[in-house]
Amino acid sequence: MTKATAGNNRGRRAVVVGVDGSVSAQGALAWAAAEASSRHCPLRIVHAFSWPMLGNPLDMTFVGDMNNGLQSAAEWILTEAEAHAREVAPDIKVIANLFVGPAAPTLLSEAQAADLVVVGSRGVGGFRGLLVGSVSATVAAHAPCPVVVVHPHGDGTAFPSSPTGRIVVGVDGSEISAAAIRFAFQQAARRHIGITAVHAATPTRQHPSLRVPADIVDQIDRQLFAEAMESKRVLFPAIDVQTRLAHAHPAQALIDASAGAELVVVGSHGRGGFAGMLLGSVSQAVLQHAACPVAVVRPHRTPSIKRSSAGRLRLAITSPDELADLKELS
């Protein structure tokens, strides 16, 4: 089952959103529709369900009546989601796809050609008390494009499609942090809102004889922080940027900053993350406990680093995608 509504969004990669009829997915749909509208790109709504089977592994038997009911329910969920998306964003092309199979692999497959994937924090059947379910965590960890995880309000209602606030981004000087900063500036430019850049200055363990005075460490942190933000400030001079140097664990600093924010942006894993760990401890903690939607970003390429005449390191913008994004937002 594939549907599409008319719209003039050809040639643009879609925003993909997973729906399953849950309150969390309703919030994700509203967020994704508003995002696709701001990007002037298509919205692809994806719903996946699995057939129940009876029998032994060598002689599976499909349950006919139950399967018909499941398909009807799945089609209803997709139709309702499409109607709501058209109401929220009537100016964009909406495509609704129904798949038979597990949700996470289906969304990861769709993510290969997507610009962004949006999922609810916890779907139908999620364990009570588990803030981020297995599907959203898996998609955030493995998708090749940025992933936004939308939490419903504390009272169980869907997150509003147009919240007010700022974009919060975690900065730690790593390559992945640079990708998160770029994404945060793009989001802020589309929404015409400000950015709060958060860097957590945590003390490092070192031998007593090599201990550096706290004020020197603080000064170094501030300099690295300023340099990480410098190139994007030049590219987006109209955006109000506030910097916050927090003496706390990075995850706690970002969770605290998420109160009242429109979006928190984190790298898939930051400085010191284990090579085989696609989602680091900071991004996992923020996904679980942030008070607003969370974007998990990983770089698509290795950035080119050049040294300026003053001896400072600068992130060179050489990606055609990045230049196209900047042209669109200027």
From TrEMBL:
InterPro entries: Rossmann-like_a/b/a_fold, Universal_stress_UspA, UspA. It holds the Pfam family Usp. Residues 13-151, 165-298 form the UspA domain. Transmembrane segments: none annotated. It comes from the Bacteria. Belongs to the universal stress protein A family. PANTHER family: ADENINE NUCLEOTIDE ALPHA HYDROLASES-LIKE SUPERFAMILY PROTEIN (PTHR31964), USPA DOMAIN-CONTAINING PROTEIN (PTHR31964:SF113). This is Nucleotide-binding universal stress UspA family protein. It comes from Kribbella antiqua. The lineage of its organism: Bacteria, Bacillati, Actinomycetota, Actinomycetes, Propionibacteriales.
